[in-house]
Amino acid sequence: MQKYRRRFYFTAVALTLAATALASGHKGPAYEGPDAPVPMLMPGTKIPLKLWETEQVADGVYAFRYSFYRTVFVVTDEGVIVTDPMTETAAPILLDEIRKITDQPIKFLSYTHSHKDHAAGGEVFKALGATIVAQSQCAANIEETKPEHVVPPDITFDEYYKIELAGKSVESFFFGPSHDNCLVVQVINPGNLLFLVDIANPPDGWTMFYNPSPSEDRIWNMENFFTRLQNLVEERDIETVIGGHMSGSFDPETGRPMLMKGTTGSARVVAEKKALWMALIEVAEAELAAGTPPEDVPDVVVEKQLLADQINGYDPEKMRILMRRMVNLSLTGE
Ligand SMILES: [Zn+2]
């Protein structure tokens, strides 16, 4: 198992590099056509992956995947609602894909958060007259850092915003800081689908984080965030999640790392990811309570293999980073 984990780590690095290359648009093979294999993602995998793919998931609701990133658009008789444009490379292809389905105008673009690997590329939709919607702190982030190719929103909101056209809707909910300081979760109808970006991906919430670095997740609010998210899932009777990314796993036959097919999956990923966050915090707190010096906790947790068998794609380096952050949370509250 150790060997596979090590391989998974290198694959995760390759994924990150591929994402960086694609997001920056410097060497994206975007114009080779949709059947081009996803570069570097899955060398030797048995699952052929198109570089991009559009899939209908409910009446008028489509998921568009580019590389291992995913967004959603809703086609109605009164226009089209798009969520994340993703990148300046992916967005023109997304527009082409929408145009294969409908001639309706693109009315709205509604960001899930302010990170430029999901929010860039909106200019092609803005040029067509789309109104851009974002949580107010996302607008402030964009104003402050002015990321390239991220178009500032026209409409901002604090807690909740509903876009509705011809009875179809995208609702955005803000539950406080989480993966970004402004990330929203979206409920899409028809379908009663929960679109989660960078929070949890089907089929498994017990998956190692793509990037556990300090700038990614506001761990001090994760319990509150996931509690509110779970309440939403229960109140709305949501059964299905669309993940903003493909999930990583292992080929059951060969043990090789692989990306999981599957655009939608069970909403139980919400409870699973919350349980993972809580378990990480508990492990660090238990070590501190047992008298382990704070600076030794990451190595001790990795040596003891704590949670190693429960986390899909477990990576000791990422676990050390996570444990440093959990120790800090325990000592300072942040
Ligand atoms: Zn993000």
Structural notes for this entry:
With 334 residues, the chain is of the alpha/beta class. It has a single domain (2-332), classed as Ribonuclease Z/Hydroxyacylglutathione hydrolase-like (Metallo-beta-lactamase, Chain A, 4-Layer Sandwich), CATH 3.60.15. Helix content is 34%, strand content 22%. The protein contains nine helices and 15 strands. The protein has helices spanning 2-24, 90-101, 116-119, 123-126, 136-145, 222-235, 268-289, 297-303, 316-332; strands at 52-58, 61-66, 69-76, 79-82, 106-110, 131-135, 155-157, 160-165, 168-174, 184-189, 193-196, 240-243, 248-250, 257-259, 264-266. A seven-stranded mixed beta sheet has the order 1-2-3-4-5-6-7. The protein is globular, with a radius of gyration of 20 Å. Bound molecules: zinc ion. Zinc ion binds next to loops.
Ligand identities: zinc ion
What CATH architecture do you see? 4-Layer Sandwich
Number of domain units: 1
Per CATH, the superfamily is Ribonuclease Z/Hydroxyacylglutathione hydrolase-like
Task: Give a brief outline of the structure.
The protein is of the alpha/beta class.
SSE topology sketch:
Elements lengths: L1 H23 L27 E7 L2 E6 L2 E8 L2 E4 L7 H12 L4 E5 L5 H4 L3 H4 L4 E5 H10 L9 E3 L2 E6 L2 E7 L9 E6 L3 E4 L25 H14 L4 E4 L4 E3 L6 E3 L4 E3 L1 H22 L7 H7 L12 H17 L2
Parallel strand pairs: 4-5, 5-6, 6-7, 11-12
Antiparallel strand pairs: 1-2, 2-3, 3-4, 8-9, 9-10, 10-11, 12-15, 13-14
Helix pairs in contact: 6-7, 7-8, 7-9, 8-9
The protein binds zinc ion.
Zinc ion binds next to loops.
